[in-house]
């Protein structure tokens, strides 16, 4: 029989809030407790309950985080300064936290000392020179200051702002903030899906244009970044791109030979498998989130992920380790200099596109109404059977012109003319 921890545990949502308020990733918290990040995820979602010594240690750590957060709030006077997110700056081991606040330098130094990494990122010079042995990513804290390119979510949480500050944010400002927060990393993700730089930028811009057209729906969504990411993936993997003349000509491959082999391995995968691999091993989503975004069951997502890893490892055996595969995907996406357009340009482009299609629809409707009116005006009011075509009559001799009379014919004509008024056999009409 297991005993519950002596220190009372807060609810699952409060556990996650305390961790995010202390600017700790799941991997860092798991390393302190001595469990995996998946176990911490289960504790924070309520799917499992901490028990035993680990649970007691976890409860004490949460209590200390709550005390530190209260002291920090008193020292800062309850105010936190928001900073704009960097391009692609995020943590691959904790993809779910939202944008965060600026913490003091003293707390940052303390976290740097406590979160000493026990692994390093594989060096770029080791590519293609045999397998790289890396410990499990879920058990290792992320180095301080390290930037992961594929995820768009920083590892700190925003302070609770008052309702009047949130209401004062205009739709244009909210859209620009979401675009600046997600677009740089999203372009790199779509590049891994398509292998084309221009198509990746177009897909991201088109996704944000659709989001701007449906902004009330996107603004109320629980995960606006996930909404835009799903739309960008759909635009990037659309089968209609194959009919574009630009799509028929391949783009220059990555300069590194290992990167070219990895990109070819990704492009050989079916689109659902490729999307699942990028979401799970690249972005760092969990299996339930990956399955929901790919519109598949969790079991189907697991099978797709397993087959995709096997296909990549069959061609590149050094990527059999998921951790190594994750870093290779990050490096492949960060090699290319993929720049996203400015948010104001994308927003105005979406508005111009919407105006164009609105005017085109109005013009087509007017033309259809005019054509219908003209048809009603000129159409006959009664039925007129069509005139049948003429037929050729057979057996009629051809017409011939009269020729000169012979001598006997002339004599007969003269005789008939002379005896026209004479003779008893001449019949004449008689009046009544």
From TrEMBL:
Q: Locate the HTH cro/C1-type domain: which residues?
A: 16-69
One annotated GO molecular function is:
sigma factor activity
A UniProt-annotated Pfam family? HTH_3
Name the UniProt key words of this record, in alphabetical order.
DNA-binding, Sigma factor, Transcription, Transcription regulation
Fetch the InterPro entries from UniProt: Cro/C1-type_HTH, Lambda_DNA-bd_dom_sf, RNA_pol_sigma-70-like, RNA_pol_sigma_r2, RNA_pol_sigma_r3/r4-like, WH-like_DNA-bd_sf
Tell me which Gene Ontology terms the entry assigns under biological process. DNA-templated transcription initiation
Which stretches of sequence are listed as region Disordered?
1-144, 381-432
Keyword Repressor applies = no
Where does the record place Basic and acidic residues bias? 115-129, 407-432
Indicate the family of this protein. Answer: Belongs to the sigma-70 factor family. ECF subfamily.
Enumerate the PANTHER family for this protein.
Answer: RNA POLYMERASE ECF-TYPE SIGMA FACTO, RNA POLYMERASE SIGMA FACTOR HI_1459-RELATED
What is the protein name for this chain? Cro/Cl family transcriptional regulator
